[in-house]
Amino acid sequence: MVKDCKRRCRTGWLVGCLLVLAGCTTELAYNTLPFWIHYYLDDIVDLTATQSRQVKADLDAVQQWHRVEELPRLADRLTLIAAQSAERQTWDQLRDHQAGVKTRIQATLNALIPATTRLLQSLDDRQAERLTQFLKDEIAEAQARRDQQSPQERLAEQQEELEERTEVGSDTPQTAKRHSTLRWRTTSNARCRPSLRYVSSCKRGYLT
Length: 208
What we know:
Blueprint: H1 2-21, H2 27-31, H3 33-45, H4 49-84, H5 91-122, H6 125-147, H7 151-164, H8 173-203
Helix pairs in contact: 1-3, 3-4, 4-5, 4-8
């Protein structure tokens, strides 16, 4: 039970770290992100001193790049979303926002590739085995949770994911467009308040 709880917490932190790197509104979380990623990587594979120094240096470099290159782009995107939320959104606008966010996330993931490659190449057999076992356990847990779902629950989950990405699910294109527009309108006010705070913080150089 304790091991399972620890694994779940660790996974949650790793997912949280990726989301934060993609654009977090919390200054403390953003600025301490390299520390937490290093902490949980070390927990998974037990880094050597040399590996630890390299991982820290790589994470600091990626974060500095992200702060200089990506935060302004995220601020611009959020400013546009906030400005357009005051009026009815078109399907093209929703798809544009979706593509813009995906582009920013992909850019961040691409920036992590060299650091990830260096780390994987430096792992010895024991570390590689620990990492492989960790991934197998995570996949098995995810599969177990999926197996416990009914076909209807799995379908509902898939449809919800598609709706969140403003993509066409089981509706016709015309119906999906109306539904996506309505969902955007009904949630835009709640989303724009933190977004506007984030834009303001970026423009003030808050995350420095």
